[in-house]
Amino acid sequence: MAPAPSSTSSAVTLNINGEKHQLTVDHRTTLLDALRERLDLTGTKKGCDQGQCGACTVLVDGRRTVSCLHLAVAAEGHEITTVEGLADGDRLHPVQQAFLDLDGYQCGYCTPGQICSAVAVIEEHAAGWPSAATEDVRPEAGPPPLTPEEIRERMSGNLCRCGAYVSILQAVARAAGEHAEATDGKAKETTA
Fold first, then answer.
1. Helix axes 165-191, 111-126, angle to 10 degrees
2. Counting Cβ atoms within 10 Å, is residue 188 exposed (0-12), middle (13-18) or buried (19+)?
3. Is the model's pTM score more than 0.85?
4. 3-state class (DSSP) for residue 91
5. Paired sense of beta strands 79-81 and 9-16, if any
6. In b/e form, how buried is each residue of 123-159, taking b as 16+ CB within 10 angstroms?
7. Residues forming a β-bridge with 30
8. Residue 165 buriedness (CB in 10 A; 0-12 / 13-18 / 19+)
9. How many CA within 13 A on the CB side of residue 76?
10. Do 65 and 111 touch, CB atoms closer than 8 A?
11. Which comes out higher in pLDDT, residue 140 or 51?
């Protein structure tokens, strides 16, 4: 049971990877620190602690968020997904599998944030969201081709000090292709 809140703390219930966690946190506690220090979900990494490197990227309601800048109290009522919550049992998420198969990592420190960001990038692209690299941003143009330039731009908030960018790009492209095939297959089943 969580300790009673004081005037500088609050009792919160965080829904993380489909499981509810009750905590009492100081109002200044970041989601990153709550995940790592309080819940022992250490897949999310602390890099710069300033929102610039992307190592701490998690998904909040399916959108990427740098957890070092997101207060834990502000995460209450939202669905939080960390890298630990992407796999389906022993079956890796397609993005995780692509990173593994294509060596989209070296030291691995940035990898959890890269993977969470890539999951969101693929969903954002499939929904037709433009990026700064998108040539035709008109809604009727539909999703732009997911070119290497698009992937680089969309993943630009995640830094890799080892320089595994070529493999990261390949992994994101492969996972995006698999996502598109799966989505097209489901759409054809629905219309048949």
1. 40
2. exposed
3. yes
4. strand
5. parallel
6. bbbeeeebbeebeeeeeeeeebebeebbbebbbebbb
7. 71
8. middle
9. 12
10. no
11. 51
Helix axes 165-191 and 94-101, enclosed angle (nearest 10): 140
Instruction: Return the structure tokens found at 184.
Output: 């097209």
pLDDT surpassing 60 at residue 24: yes
Burial of 192 from C-beta contacts in 10 A (0-12 / 13-18 / 19+) = exposed
Strands (E), 62-174: 63-66, 79-81
| φ, ψ at 20 (rounded to 5°) | -90, 135
pLDDT digits (tens, 9 = 90+) for 145-186: 899 999 999 999 999 999 999 999 999 999 999 998 888 776
What CA–CA distances, in Å, run from 52 to 10, 24, 168?
28, 28, 18
State residue 188's pLDDT score: 63
Q: Which tokens in the block code for residue 112?
A: 């959890």
Residue 30 phi, psi (nearest 5): -80, 160
Unique residue bearing structure tokens 């190592």: 55
Gap between the Cα atoms of 23 and 38, Å rounded: 8
